[in-house]
Each structure stands twice: as structure tokens, then as C-alpha cells.
Amino acid sequence: MVEQIIKNGEGTILDVRTKGEFQGGHVAGSINIPVNELMHRIDEVKSLKSPLVLCCASGGRSAMATQLLKQKGITCHDAGPWTNVNYLQSQTVNSL
């Protein structure tokens, strides 16, 4: 399901790593809200185009963030490492 969302360019890719990690490399078009800021920025998260596809460095923080956001009623999916999401996005239907 996550693979199809990414490949079809649906929703929003949300990277929950730190700002420094995000600046070191990220998925094109992704939004960065570190996992420790999610609850403080919940209104911003709710305003993003659904479904949310969450990623981080190895999959631990995105799994935790997915649980937190689902408890708030937000449609989201854990996609694990951002590098996997980046690869899947490169396979998108819309790519030239």
C-alpha cells in the first residue's frame, strides 16, 4: 500500500528525522517535522495532504511517529528509511 501511494505521488511524505539529518539528504518534496516536535505541531500535520507517508533514518522513529499520529486520527503509513522512499519515488508513474 505504501509503495503504491509513493509511486502514484499521492499524499505527503513526512520525514521525522532531525533538521540536521534532513539537510544532509532527503526525499524531494518531503516535509521535515522531527518526531519530537510532532505533538507540538499537530495542527500543521493535520493540514498536510493525506495520506501521510512517514520516513526517518532506519525506521524506528517513523514507526513511533505513525503510532502517535494514528492515535490522533491521522491517516498515515510507516515507510521506514527515507532512502527506501527516495528509491520508490524515483519509480513514480509521473517520472519521465
Short key terms for the protein model shown above:
single chain; 96 residues; alpha/beta; Oxidized Rhodanese, domain 1; 4-stranded parallel β-sheet; globular
Question: Would you kindly provide a brief summary of this structure?
Answer:
With 96 residues, the chain is α/β, with parallel strands linked by helices. It contains 5 helices and 4 strands; from the N terminus they run H-E-H-E-H-E-H-E-H.
- Average pLDDT, rounded to a whole number, is 94
Main sheet? 4 strands, parallel
Number of domains: 1
Strand order of the largest sheet: 2-1-3-4
Count, helices? 5
Q: Please give the radius of gyration in angstroms.
A: 12 Å
Q: How widely separated are the two ends?
A: 23 Å
- Secondary-structure element pattern, one letter each: HEHEHEHEH
Q: What name does the CATH topology carry? A: Oxidized Rhodanese, domain 1
What is the assembly state of the chains in this entry? single chain
Task: Please characterize this protein's 3D structure.
By secondary structure, the chain is of the alpha/beta class. It has a single domain (2-89), classed as Oxidized Rhodanese, domain 1. It contains 5 helices and 4 strands, in the order αβαβαβαβα. Strands 2-1-3-4 form a 4-stranded parallel β-sheet. Helix 2 (19-23) links the parallel strand 1 and strand 2 (31-32). It is globular and about 35 Å long. The chain starts with a helix and ends in a 6-residue tail after the last helix. The mean pLDDT is 94.
